[in-house]
Specification:
By secondary structure, the protein is of the alpha/beta class. Helix content is 32%, strand content 24%. It folds into 2 domains: 7-329, ANL, N-terminal domain (Rossmann fold), CATH 3.40.50.12780; 333-429, ANL, C-terminal domain (GMP Synthetase, Chain A, domain 3, 2-Layer Sandwich), CATH 3.30.300.30. It has 12 helices and 19 strands. Bound molecules: 5'-O-[hydroxy(phenylacetyl)phosphoryl]adenosine. Residues 92-93, 135, 141-142, 212-215, 234-239, 243-244, 301, 303, 323-324, 327 line the site of 5'-O-[hydroxy(phenylacetyl)phosphoryl]adenosine (DLL).
Length: 434
């Protein structure tokens, strides 16, 4: 039987949800206009006042916010509450430029943890569960968010953070963890380590995994489900809107329900900014309807996605987003062709390779080059050189069919590609270094 954390909201009729969103939006725009001079200036420049925004149908009149605005306004420029009412900051994991710092009142923390509680409940979590949280703790939102959600649900919470993988497995076995929360790349690594330690999924009790913070494919989902013996669910979020729990997957395992009572989603054309109809592919934009301290209106995420309102077998009526198809700024343009790393991952796993790979893009003699390094399993590695060469050719052919361009494939020895304990870095674009 499907479990809900807040059935009234999660299964609310479309009309009631729209009414709730309209009321919340009007109040939020007023709150921001009155308390955030940075955004008030943007609205004034566009000639929009809070009175013009009476419902979500008026949202398109408001200006966008981008990461560049967040950098300009760093650190306090988008704060909408006095610092004395803020109790926490979290920050992005970004390594370049200024970090994004997000502020929370206690109310904001409560709502955020509530969203994570909905995600944990949707995968079947109850107070009977043991929830092992191996997202990073600290400034990154992954650990604190799911930790808070797990407490709310009443699970026994293991605040492991990432790393020390053998110890993770030891705790998992000793305490009988039933839910695992971490990045999908770390889940794959934990699965690999479990088998290397001589265990099988029968030696652990995991039933569900809540994996997000980075793009991952359906093929990767099947790999992880097999190696850890669990059902793998997606979770989405970003620091700017709170953290994990903006959207979460349910028993249908087919896209994520957006907590749209808190986050209003739009899809826009990334070039023109025009709002696109439901079902179109474009850039995801979020408006925070309830946040007090750091309420971003029309924040452009750069994530490419599709929204749908088709009825879901779980009974939730919350709008769904598909797996993000990469970020518009992650997309590689190689010899003029748009390539998403997820397409490469799909081909690799379909062809029976491991999800351990590295993509290198460079430019030689004014031509872009694409090199894909793919790690072999010990069994695959024992093949003859001739076999390996023919495998490389076969894989290059499959990639050509998917991408439309020819990559150079390098099959490399087991364990030669670094594993990730957090967000995996799989693409090296050397063109940017020249
Ligand atoms: O990654 C928050 C999070 C923590 C989400 C734990 C899920 C689980 P940031 O570090 O600010 O926050 O990165 C946000 O990560 O704009 C997406 O590009 C990407 N991302 C997050 N979840 C997913 C997902 C956290 N499920 C950025 N699939 C977002 C694909 C994701 N990409």
């Amino acid at each position: 039987m499907e479990r809900y954390w807040n059935q009234e909201i999660e299964c609310m009729s479309r009309e009631d949800m729209k009414k709730l969103q309209d009321e919340r939006l009007a109040a939020q725009v007023k709150h921001v206009y009155e308390n955030v001079p940075y955004y008030r200036d943007l609205m004034d420049k566009k000639g929009v006042t809070p009175d013009d925004i009476r419902s979500t149908d008026d949202l398109h009149k408001l200006p966008f916010l981008t990461k560049a605005d967040l950098r300009d306004a760093y650190p306090y420029g988008l704060l909408a509450k006095p610092l004395s009412e803020c109790v926490r900051i979290q920050s992005t994991s970004g390594t370049t430029g200024k970090r994004v710092v997000a502020f929370y009142t206690q109310h904001d923390i409560d709502l955020w943890e509530d969203c994570c509680a909905r995600a944990i409940t949707a995968v079947g979590g109850t107070e009977e569960d043991v929830c092992q949280v191996c997202y990073g703790y600290g400034l990154f939102t992954g650990g604190p968010g799911l930790n808070g959600g797990s407490h709310k649900v009443g699970c026994l919470t293991l605040p492991m953070s990432s790393g020390n993988t053998e110890r993770q497995i030891q705790f998992m076995r000793d305490l009988g963890s039933t839910i695992l929360c971490c990045t999908p790349s770390y889940a794959a690594y934990i699965g690999e380590t479990l088998h290397e330690m001589g265990f099988t999924p029968d030696d652990i009790k995991l039933k569900a995994g809540i994996f997000g913070a980075e793009p991952w494919t359906e093929e990767m989902r099947r790999e992880i489900e097999k190696s850890l013996g669990l059902k793998a669910y997606d979770i989405y979020g970003l620091t700017e809107t709170s953290g994990p729990g903006v959207a979460f997957e349910c028993s249908a395992q087919n896209g994520m329900h957006i907590n749209e009572d808190h986050f209003f989603a739009e899809i826009i054309d990334p070039e023109t900014g025009e709002v696109l109809p439901e079902g179109s592919k474009g850039e995801l934009v979020f408006t925070s309807l309830t946040k007090e301290a750091f309420p971003l209106l029309r924040y452009r995420t750069r994530d490419i996605c599709v929204l749908t309102r088709e009825a879901c077998s779980c009974g939730r009526t919350l709008i769904k987003m598909c797996k993000p198809m990469g970020r518009s700024d992650d997309m590689l343009i190689i010899r003029g062709v748009n390539v998403f790393p997820s397409q490469i991952e799909t081909v690799l796993i379909e062809q029976g390779y491991s999800p351990n790979y590295r993509i290198e893009v460079d430019r030689m003699n004014n031509t872009d080059t694409l090199d894909v390094f793919v790690e072999l399993t010990p069994e695959q590695f024992s093949d003859t050189v001739k076999d390996l060469q023919s495998k490389e050719r076969e894989l290059a052919g499959a990639m050509k069919t998917m991408l439309g361009i020819n990559p150079k494939i390098h099959l490399v020895s087991p364990k030669s590609i670094a594993r990730s304990e957090g967000k995996a870095v799989r693409v090296v674009d050397k063109r940017k270094l020249h």
